Automatic annotation (TrEMBL):
Keywords: Glutamine amidotransferase, Glycosyltransferase, Iron, Iron-sulfur, Metal-binding, Purine biosynthesis, Transferase. The lineage of its organism: Eukaryota, Viridiplantae, Streptophyta, Embryophyta, Tracheophyta. It comes from Prunus persica. HAMAP family: PurF. Residues 1-29 have a biased composition (Low complexity). The keyword Coiled coil does not apply. One of its GO terms (molecular function) is amidophosphoribosyltransferase activity. This is amidophosphoribosyltransferase. The keyword Hydrolase does not apply.
Length: 584
């Protein structure tokens, strides 16, 4: 259903005008429901002196992951260990959508390569040819899932793709996106980045009315809501479904003739739009994907916006308005690549500024500045430049290790970290070293890194963290531990320093972070630093455990109950009652 400029949109009664955000591009896009110019191609188809404990946040229940994937636990066979020792929050997904290019699937494949850092455990592409949606998904890296033969099976000029982070192994194949489903008016494919905080209630309600679920992914709920919608046009079905969702979602949908991009009203997760020289339209989680396939960045998909691309052109509509976007600040701290523009800001410039702030707020006499690669490098460059101290490569990261490795019978201390990070003695020996990292989660890896540096001869090790202390779990599409496992939620800065063994420790002050962001500061979500959630979590699905528990089962919904972490206990009963009444 196309909206026009000559008469009110049929959606105007239920859809309001989006709230524009301050962006860096010069010409802000129009948000009135109208048809934009057709594509130009023929279309056939905390402060640094923290001494208090951040204890105000209510602790979640015990993390169920530990029951299935205990840290540093030897495999029963005695040979293999999981040495994935990064101890970092993990972005769940990356998405891409392409309309109007005869090599859509190949371009999608390349764009997913550029987004590989957002998910390494599964990848998939759905392409449209002769009104039929064809899908190939698999476990592993993009280069492992796809080859020339498989891409030849995905012809067409319309495609979407997805990379996913979850547990390794064939058992999670059924949860690899994009998902494709048929309903009475055709077929639809979807790729989703984010997490729905009301997923469990929605799924239970749908199952009560006879819906059957094949996966343990919250994305499947969206397909069910689209299928049962009373609206006829596909666009209105998406709007109807999204109005029932709470939480974070940046999604791309594909039908036989349409590509649709949707972003939740808070804009938690990024989603950008670009265009190639032949006029084909591209959506992606980050601009680095646009760069690789030579697409020019045009703008973000704005919070609460629905963008539809079909033979009529590009149509921009509003899903629902929200007075204050809440974009994930961790995209700039850790997740996104430095060469990306996220939420209208250069990630590189943000991280360099974080390092400069640390050098100003937490100076220390030192001989060399190094980084924990790769995410700490740009902040370390900023720190070194501001402090007037040389930046050197004191830790070398190996990019050729997988998730498991055969450990020798003679145990090696800090084996997992040593596999990935090698100290350079010539840089470190006898030196007072500042080491810059992007964050501290549990603190286990930081302690091993400090020990590694001192064993390599560092005289002093001063840890500088380019983010405020993390005290709260993320409920909006990031895989984080329960709050009781977050070291900053249990210890003061001085206690953490003693735990990791560094000579000094300083975090990026949240007040300075907000000041650096300027008038855009209120548009960001700081829940992991403050425990104050823009969308109050009633539940959260831990996807990796859900995959593990539910795989191969066709049982009840409770069979994946172990994959959930209890929500914030500060909820009021009246909010729960209001929520129950609002579902469907």
């Amino acid at each position: 259903m196309a909206a026009t400029t000559t008469k009110p949109s049929p959606l105007s009664s239920s859809l309001s005008k989006p709230t524009p955000l301050p962006l860096t591009h010069k010409t802000p896009p129009s948000f009135s429901p109208k048809t934009l110019p057709k594509p130009a191609f023929p279309l056939k188809t905390s402060s640094l002196s923290h001494t208090h404990k951040a204890s105000s946040l209510t602790l979640r229940s015990k993390n169920p992951i530990s029951e299935f994937f205990p840290a540093n636990k030897q495999n029963p066979d005695g040979d293999f260990i999981d040495y994935d020792d990064d101890d970092k929050p993990r972005e769940e997904c990356g998405v891409v959508g392409i309309y109007g290019d005869p090599e859509a699937s190949r371009l999608c494949y390349l764009a997913l390569h550029a987004l590989q850092h957002r998910g390494q455990e599964g990848a998939g592409i759905v392409c449209v040819q002769d009104d039929v949606l064809q899908s190939i998904t698999g476990v592993g890296l993009v280069s492992e899932v796809f080859n020339q033969t498989k891409l030849d099976q995905l012809p067409g000029d319309l495609a979407i793709g997805h990379v996913r982070y979850s547990t390794a192994g064939a058992s999670m194949l059924k949860n690899v996106q994009p998902f494709v489903a048929g309903y009475r008016f055709g077929s639809v494919g979807v790729a989703h980045n984010g997490n729905l905080v009301n997923y469990r209630a929605l799924r239970a309600k749908l199952e009560d009315t006879g819906s059957i679920f094949n996966t343990s992914s919250d994305t499947e709920v969206v397909l069910h809501l689209i299928a049962i919608s009373k609206h006829r046009p596909f666009l209105l079905r998406i709007v109807d479904a999204c109005e029932q969702l709470e939480g974070a979602y940046s999604m791309v949908f594909v039908t036989k003739d349409k590509l649709v991009a949707v972003r939740d009203p808070h804009g938690f997760r990024p989603l950008v739009m670009g265009r190639r020289s032949n006029g084909s339209v591209v959506f992606a989680s980050e601009t680095c994907a646009l760069d690789l396939i030579e697409a020019t960045y045009e703008r973000e998909v704005f919070p609460g916006e629905v963008v539809v691309v079909d033979k009529e052109g590009v149509q921009s509509l509003c899903l629902m308005s929200h007075p204050q976007p809440k974009q994930c600040i961790f995209e700039h701290i850790y997740f996104a690549l430095p060469n990306s523009v996220v939420f209208g800001r250069s990630v590189y410039e943000s991280r360099r500024a974080f390092g400069e702030i640390l050098a100003t707020e937490a100076p220390v006499d030192c001989d060399v500045v190094i980084a924990v690669p790769d995410s700490g490098v740009v902040a370390a460059l900023g720190y070194a430049a501001k402090a007037g101290v040389a930046f050197q490569q004191g830790l070398i990261r190996s990019h050729y290790v997988g998730r498991t490795f055969i450990e020798p019978s003679q145990k090696i201390r800090d084996f997992g970290v040593k596999l990935k990070l090698s100290p350079v003695r010539a840089v470190l020996e006898g030196k007072r070293v500042v080491v810059v990292d992007d964050s501290i989660v549990r603190g286990t890896t930081s302690s091993k890194i400090v020990r590694l540096l001192k064993e390599a001869g560092a005289k002093e090790v001063h840890m500088r963290i380019a983010s405020p202390p993390i005290i709260g779990s993320c409920y909006y599409g990031v895989d984080t531990p329960s709050s009781e496992e977050l070291i900053s939620n249990r210890m003061s800065v001085e206690e953490i320093r003693e735990f990791i063994g560094s000579d000094s420790l300083a975090f990026l002050p949240i007040a300075k972070l907000e000041k650096m962001l300027g008038n855009q500061s209120p548009n960001f979500c700081y829940a992991c630093f403050s425990g104050k959630y823009p969308v109050e979590p009633r539940e959260v699905k831990v996807k990796k455990v859900g995959d593990f528990v539910d795989d191969g089962l066709n049982g009840s919904f409770e069979s994946i109950g172990g994959g959930w972490v209890q929500a914030n206990q500060t909820q009021k009963e009246e909010k729960d009652k209001e929520f129950e009444g609002s579902v469907l």
